[in-house]
Amino acid sequence: MAEKPRLLLHVCCGPCAAWVVRRLRETYEVTGFFHNPNIHPQAEYRFRLQEACLLARREGWTLLQGEWNIQAWVRAMFPWRNEPERGRRCSLCFEQRLRRTFEIAGEKGFDCVASTLSISPYKVTRQINAEGEALSREFGIAFLPENFKSRDGWNHARKLASELGIRHQDYCGCVYSQRDRLLRTRSRNRMASGPGDSA
Predict the structure, then answer these.
(1) What is the tens place of the pLDDT at every residue in 146-180?
(2) Whole-model pTM above 0.85?
(3) DSSP summary character for residue 57
């Protein structure tokens, strides 16, 4: 039997990786790479890393860990701080995380790269794949331009993560996503309380 190609999978979080890794392992020898310097605050980063490590142990695959440098990430993204979710800032963030994944893939001799990011219904698959394919040409390493949210992938992932006891987060991860979530929550609360209920 021929050996499976070695694939380095950028892992954004445990719940997203659960179903993606199971699907990819049918064809590839999968190693995960948790590299998400965008995640804020540090407690949230540790929580997501912990859940990804727990998943890897329970499912029996290797998870490599990248660096967490929120200061460098904020400096790089600051000019686009007011971009809406799914805008230019997200593309730059995808590029930064995938670039490091390709660098590690090159150093360690992987045959191809993929990312769990496209399973999220909150992410634009064509943005992710455009960055991955550009980096593939630059590094000379194949990229798997998947849309993991197809065929109800998101719901499969959430169900599997729940079965495995992997806890889910409630926002994208970056400080700007966190800010926007808080603003939306405050706006909903104000609308729910009505004009006469404010102090």
Answers:
(1) 999 998 999 999 999 999 999 988 766 788 877 77
(2) yes
(3) H
